[in-house]
Amino acid sequence: MTPAMQALFPDVDTPALMLDSTQVRKNIALLQSRADAAGIRLRPHVKAHKSSHIARLQMEAGAVGLCCTKLGEAEVMVANGHRDLLITSPVVGMLKIERLLQLGRAASIQVVADDELNIRELASAARAAGVDIGIVIEVDVGQGRCGVQPGPRAAELARHVISSGALTLAGVQGYQGGLQCTPLFSERSIGVRAAMDRLAMSLEELRRAGITVPVITGGGTGSFPIDIELHQLTELQPGSYVTMDATYTATEWSAAGSGPPLGQPLTVLASVVSRPTRDKAIVDAGWKAVSSDAGVPRVKDRPDLRFEFAGDEHGAIVAMTGKLGLNVGDRVELIPSHCDTTVNLYDKFVVHHAGRAEAIWPIEARGKSQ
Ligand SMILES: Cc1ncc(COP(=O)(O)O)c(C=O)c1O
């Protein structure tokens, strides 16, 4: 047993999602200052932290608005006073379009679209409701997810938006999520440049058609240092940079091979509940407490320990070399491999400063997947 581990947040019940408020503020300030220095607007994505409080910190730091993936996230943000949102995934079908219009009555709402029928449906609903919705045409810049293919299609859809008379052409989105966590900077950089070249094919067609594109949006935490160099995007939408995770921390941030200048405020606090063998401790955090889609979490400050999933509610901490140094009742902090899917498991962040829990920040958009 190490005394430091036994003493970890004794007043906090486990498993708990912990957040270092100082580091959160540092991460927010760092990316904002770099975007400001590059003259690029920051519209952070809330899909990772899902917290209106953190969104407020981002807005106070200088963000121009927020991005959400789901209407449910946007509804939470609007209910908590946020008034400028981009929904970065298509909103399809009248069930959802009605909710979108409801949001548009209270806030400035933009939504991504990549389909003519969807644009027609949005236009007739917006016209009937007398609500202004901004449309951002999505171009598939290489991820193979949503978006029209690079080339003339974006301009064709933009014409439909403009000629509808009921919608506003707000911009173009090109997001390459498949590259964000590419560990080698050189490889990621080549990929991001290729993605921006694909976006440029659509932008050139829009220019030729005489269509003004107010905003060119995209980018994530991993592409951020490349995006600000390339200067093709006029708005950036990183999300994970606030909380970070073990996967992002392991990526290179520069051609020189340095890691991200962002700290790691997010951890899962777990307690040792059993000590079955000399080199193994069982903690009260399994698949229901820390996500596994990007691999196992790391044990904070203990590179000599390995985490293994041991069920829905259990994890095993195994000593790889030397002593385990853990007894029943001790605490460990786990660094999730993927922040988005781990945060979505919790109702609240236990926020701490200087080693003491000081506040609860609700994760109001947790589970809002509709
Ligand atoms: C469209 C879009 N933009 C931005 C982001 C933010 O990326 P990250 O959390 O890696 O910064 C995501 C994340 O999945 C996304 O889907």
Element order, helices and strands?
HEHEHEHEHEHEHEHEHEHEEEEEEHEE
- How many strands? 17
Rounded mean pLDDT score = 97
Helix content: 25-40%
Beta-strand portion reads 15-25%
> Given the C-alpha coordinates, what overall shape results?
elongated
Q: Detail the poorly predicted runs.
A: none
Terminal residue distance: 45 Å
Small molecules held by this entry: pyridoxal-5'-phosphate
Query: What quaternary form is this?
Result: single chain
How many H/I helices? 11
Largest sheet: 9 strands, mixed
Label the structural class: alpha/beta
Explain this structure.
The model has no long low-confidence stretch (mean pLDDT 97). 32% of the residues lie in helices and 22% in strands. With 370 residues, the protein is an alpha/beta fold. The strands form two sheets. Strands 1, 10, 11, 12, 13, 14, 15, 16 and 17 form a nine-stranded mixed sheet that branches. It is built from eleven helices and 17 strands. Helix 4 (71-79) links the parallel strand 3 (66-68) and strand 4. The protein binds pyridoxal-5'-phosphate. Pyridoxal-5'-phosphate binds at residues 45, 47-48, 67, 88, 175, 177, 180, 220-222, 237-241.
List the helices and strands and how they pair.
Layout: H1 3-6, E1 16-20, H2 21-38, E2 41-42, H3 52-61, E3 66-68, H4 71-79, E4 84-87, H5 94-106, E5 108-113, H6 116-129, E6 134-138, H7 153-164, E7 168-173, H8 185-208, E8 215-218, H9 224-230, E9 235-236, H10 246-249, E10 266-277, E11 280-283, E12 298-299, E13 305-309, E14 315-319, E15 331-335, H11 339-343, E16 348-353, E17 356-362
Parallel strand pairs: 1-16, 2-9, 3-4, 4-5, 5-6, 6-7, 7-8, 8-9
Antiparallel strand pairs: 1-10, 10-11, 10-15, 11-14, 12-15, 13-14, 16-17
